[in-house]
What we know:
The protein has 213 residues and is α+β, with helices and mostly antiparallel strands. The protein has 5 helices and 9 strands; from the N terminus they run H-E-E-H-E-H-E-E-H-H-E-E-E-E.
Amino acid sequence: MPPSLIAADLGVPCTVHPLGSWASGTHGLAEELLVMDRALLPRFLDGTWSPYELSLIDVPADVTADRLDEVALVLGTARGDEPLLSRLEDSRVWFSGHDDCYVLLETRDPALPAAVLARLLALLAGSALTGLPGLAEGPSVRVPEPGPGPAEQLIAAAPHWIGALGEVTEDRVIIGLAALPRPWRLDVAFPQRADFTATLDVRSGTWRITPAE
């Protein structure tokens, strides 16, 4: 279903910018672009549909049709390992979701990488706690995120990380974190030894990230 029909069904106001058939099948593009206020994204991404291969990029509020064509051209001709924002000076965030395993995120905001890493830790811990007797009353569990400091500490130590669940009880969740020499892929197994340990105290809702012993 075209994104514009999804937006209409959800009652999300937006402007539709057609690209044409040339964009069909091009990675990161479709035959149309939707332009909407960023505050409407939670309503658009409401969980009732799968945003498979969704691309998001921020543009100025007064973006023109010609500029949208330029954005589409950059997205459609970029290599997979090429930074995009260097060619889009008025954009600060670009997201490309390939499937449930891989995403690409590029930003000019220095706080965003740590925020994303903190959210991923919270999601991993929450998935482990879901279903434990006495904790989960439904299909989800609310888990606090670590503050920005610990996540920034990890990013400063190494650019690539992998996390694996350790002990999971009603009182705590332990995640082993190991630095990788290159970005993670599906065929990369967890290293034999973790470099850091992230521990969630479930009762107090606090996180602690320390070097592994």
